[in-house]
Every structure is written in structure tokens, then in C-alpha cells.
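explain this chain.
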Amino acid sequence: MKILAWSVGVLCLMAVVVAGAVWEYAGLYGLDVLVRHGGTYWIPVRADSRLLSPAMRRALRSSPPASPGLMQWRSIAQGFDVADLPVVAEGSAVDHVLLARIEPDRFRFVVRNSSAGDKGLDQWMTQLNAILVVNGSYFAQDGNPDTPFLSDGLLLGPKDYDAKAGAFVAAPTFTGIRNLAEQSWQMAFRNAHDAMVSYPLLLDGGASHVRKESRWLANRSFVGQDQAGRIVIGTTTDAFFSLDRLARFLLDAPLDLALALNLDGGPVACQGISLNGYGRKTYGRWEAQVEGDRVSLLVWPFGTVAMPVVLAVLPNQS
């Protein structure tokens, strides 16, 4: 009994030490991550490992060019359309981009942060009573925004930030993407009620803005603006794309995009829609760093990954 009590005491002490270290490093967000899914970490794998999705293995094997498959917009409300865009490579669908196309004057766009790490897609949908929720831009180790971030008029994130990519901005007179090569983020945020800086800018003016080739694969989300001023939101169901290849794919896709801004990727790349009896949800799962022949896969022991930063679409305030 003494040995058992001693062992329990040692385990409790170790748990306290670990919790204290996590609190010191990442605060409440870090503790919630441990409880929610046991933390995340990288493991080395082979490029043909069964731990990778079939789409990732195909991308790493030959990086085949991808083309858009057949898609059709479906209206589920006035000013709100949805579609499923297949990603076709070597004659078959290897991934899908789940799309929403929204007239911004008919709906309200907001960005929100929960640095406690206590909310995933389901919790955000419920709390906000949202029509759509998608992951937002990047966040720091404590769950707070890692880029300038305006939420219901409250400025969060770093105040001193040299942004050169893009920002999503929701203001009374404009909702869409701003190219920050042409203006500062402070100017882009002016008169907005919600906004966030993200990177990279995928498309502008019919051209890709991703100059660097990469083999980093992940579930992807983006927010775009088409030539008619409608907001287009997309999330992949798998991790076939690196950022440069995603940008090239969007150029060829029948979306008529004027601009597109990348959002955070990997397990946080989730999207949910609930409107007029229509519902869908997709949850991110995949992310792999690839350098040469070295592949590192992001994994977690159990549960689901939180979404500290989100972009949400709500009904217009009457």
C-alpha cells in the first residue's frame, strides 16, 4: 500500500509539474489543448506511409497537376450558394473544395477569438448561432491572434506588425479582401467593425501571388472575392495542396475570383454551414512538413483540435 500511495503521489506531482510548465508556456490555451486532445506533436514518416492520406501520398509521389472537376452552384437562400468542387489529378478526384458564395449585403461577417482553446467548429456554430463558420487567420501559442485582428470593434493581436499580404475586412460600406501591398493594415481596418490580416495573398488581378514553391501539405481554407463582389469561402476535405499549387488551382477554377486570401491550415481548417435545412461540416485532419525526402506529420492522441480564431457569417441584424 505504501508503494502504491508513493506511486500515486509521484504521478500527481508529475502532473502538477507538467501543468505548471504548460501554463507558463501557453496559459489556459495550453492546458485546454492537453485536456481536449492531448497536445499535438510531429512524427517522422515515409512519403508512402499509410499514416498519410491517399491524397498526400499521391502529391508526394509525383505532384501531379490538378484541374477543377465539374461543379454546380446550389442556392440555399437568397444571396447564399454552396458547391462541391472536385480536385482532379491523373483522371480521378483526389480532394474536394467545399465552397460557399455569399452576397455580403445580405449577411453579416464577423471574426472571433477564443484564446482559452475551448471551442471547436461545433461549439462556435452553437454559440454564434452562425450560418457559416470557417477557421480564421493564425494564432499564437497562447491562443490569441498572431496577426492584427479586429473583433466587434476591439483591436486584438500585435499592434506593431508589418503586413504585406492581405486582410479580410467587414465594414458598413465594404466587405471583402484588401491587398496590403497597396495600403497599410491600419488603413484597411479603418471604419471596419471586424477584420483580420492573413497570408499569403493567393490571387489578385488574375495572377498567383505565391512565389515560393513548397511541398508543405495541409487541409486548406481561403476567403475570396469574385468579380461581382461576392465573398467566396472554401475549405478542402483533404491535404493534396501546397499553397503554390492551391493558388494555381484557384486560377483555373470556375469561381471568377478577383482576389483570394489564404487562412490558417491543417487540423484547424474546418467549415460548417447551417441554413434553411441545409447543413454540412468538414473537419481538418492533415498537415505535413516536407523538406526533401523528410516528411513530418502532425498528430495528436485523441479528441478534436480547437479553433481559436474563426470567421463567421451571421444573419443580418434587423
Remarks:
- The mean pLDDT is 90.
- The chain has two domains: 1-39, 41-315.
- Residues 82 and 259 are 19 Å apart (CA to CA).
- The longest strand covers residues 92-102.
